[in-house]
Amino acid sequence: MSVLGIGVDIVDCARIEHSLERFGERFLQRVFTRGEIAYCQSVKFPARHFAARFAAKEAVSKAFGTGIGKAMGWRDIDLHRHESGQPFIVLEAGAKQLATERGVSSLWVSLSHTDDHAVATVVIEA
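Above: the chain's sequence. Below: its structure in token form.
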């Protein structure tokens, strides 16, 4: 196995909370999958969890070296959780195609947040 890319991103939780308040459902539907929305809305401080997932999506796009845009969209990157709570990534559409083209065998993600910031790190292996 070899590392194809590493990405990291940090997000201000207040920025995500502001987007949730200002744009509501439109923001949620543009950036997050149904499963991500359901999970984040089920916890005590949704904005922190949305911010961590937003950071993870950015970190994935950085690890691939593409950014969010033509090669992959926000909703092409779907964060899930194992029963243990460990996060994992499911790629769809453009992101899945890119992963196949590059021979990706695994993606590793780590999420963390405080009251103010959320951070995500992603490692892509082939």
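The CA atoms of residues 18 and 24 lie 9 Å apart.
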